[in-house]
């Protein structure tokens, strides 16, 4: 599978030693727009050797730096929704973060059920803010048709520290379902909530993500170092794309989501090989991976229609607000299609 750290690649290659990186260039890339520079090393561990406990602890020290407030940015906005929705406390992490979901007030077993998740990767800001914006602006439009369950921020520690992994250096978007090789409390808590609702068949699950320049400059190099694998160069696609399930592609639905998003932000073109992130483009702005095998969050509801969105906030032409609106458009576009064509 491809190189983008954003959503759904697995890395199993063995390993030549990495080339020298340019730390200054990597640092400069963190807050700039446009294509990221190449980074081919990581300052923790020995090239070619998977991390042990001490390396994971070193990583945790490097990664721990609270940069924003989950309480202010997420919990306060969730609580303000209580007049319109039911707010569900579904767990607590690290003695610090209360986990909240938001669901339809009149949950009706006869209606199709739709799940929206954000912040599985906590650093992917528009996943969190897009889920909240959807709840604030559009969710009630679908109340008559669907039961909605929205988890705005699955990984609060990742959100506050602007990190992809959990504090244990586990990627929370590889930890879902029976085939997952790793486990984390973030995924376990959300999975337990989804299972507890006893929904026989979920209609839809949209999991909101971003592909960012830090995937190339930090997170993919960190993964290669952690796993002792060869360093990969990410080619970060410029624009929005979807990752859909190769076992259940739902191309017509994906096209409707892409068309809805196109009104807010540009769609990623295929590269010279006809690929996005090393995966063949199956249709405009769409790549396919086997959800259950990769153990991504989007497999957890086993929904008829499931996708992972990938917004690109580091594009020279996009803004944070545009990315949030693109996430809302993706959810609304997906639900509109189902309401129109698949009920
Ligand atoms: Zn992601």
UniProtKB/TrEMBL annotation:
CDD domains per the record? M14_REP34-like
Domain Peptidase M14: residue ranges: 59-343
Which InterPro entries does the record match to this protein?
A: DUF2817, Peptidase_M14
Pfam families, A to Z: DUF2817 (PF10994)
Q: Which portions of the sequence form the region Disordered? A: 1-56
For molecular function, the Gene Ontology terms on record are:
metallocarboxypeptidase activity; zinc ion binding
Signal sequence, start to end: none
A biological-process GO annotation: proteolysis
Top-level division of the source organism's lineage? Eukaryota
Q: Write out the similarity annotation.
A: Belongs to the peptidase M14 family.
What protein am I looking at? Peptidase M14 domain-containing protein
Q: Which organism is it from?
A: Emiliania huxleyi (strain CCMP1516)
């Amino acid at each position: 599978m491809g190189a983008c750290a954003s959503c759904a690649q697995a890395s199993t290659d063995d390993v030549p030693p990495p080339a020298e990186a340019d730390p200054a260039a990597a640092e400069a890339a963190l807050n700039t727009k446009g294509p990221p520079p190449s980074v081919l090393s990581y300052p923790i561990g020995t090239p070619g050797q998977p991390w042990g406990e001490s390396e994971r602890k070193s990583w945790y020290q490097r990664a721990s730096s609270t940069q924003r407030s989950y309480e202010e940015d997420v919990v306060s906005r969730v609580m303000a929704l209580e007049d319109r929705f039911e707010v569900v406390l579904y767990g607590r992490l690290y003695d610090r973060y209360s986990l909240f979901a938001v669901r339809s007030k009149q949950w009706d077993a006869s209606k199709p059920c739709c799940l929206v998740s954000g912040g599985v990767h906590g650093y992917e800001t528009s996943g969190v803010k897009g889920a909240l914006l959807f709840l604030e602006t559009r969710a009630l439009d679908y109340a008559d048709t669907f039961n909605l369950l929205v988890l705005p921020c699955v990984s609060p520690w990742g959100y506050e520290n602007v990190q992809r992994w959990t504090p244990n250096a586990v990627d929370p978007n590889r930890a879902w379902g029976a085939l997952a090789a790793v486990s984390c409390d973030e995924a376990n808590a959300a999975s337990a909530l989804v299972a507890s609702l006893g929904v026989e068949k979920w209609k839809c699950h949209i999991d909101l993500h971003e592909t960012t320049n830090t995937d190339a400059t930090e997170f993919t190099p960190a993964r290669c170092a952690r796993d002792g694998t060869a360093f990969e160069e990410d080619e970060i696609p410029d624009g929005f794309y979807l990752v859909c399930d190769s076992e259940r592609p739902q191309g017509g639905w994906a096209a409707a989501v892409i068309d809805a998003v196109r009104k807010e932000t540009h769609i990623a073109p295929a590269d010279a090989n006809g690929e996005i992130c090393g995966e063949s483009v199956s249709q405009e702005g769409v790549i396919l991976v086997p959800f259950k095998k990769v153990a991504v969050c989007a497999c957890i509801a086993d929904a008829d229609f499931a996708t992972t969105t990938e917004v690109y906030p580091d594009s020279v032409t996009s803004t944070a607000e545009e990315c949030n609106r693109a996430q809302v458009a993706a959810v609304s576009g997906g639900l509109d299609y189902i309401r129109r064509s698949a009920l």
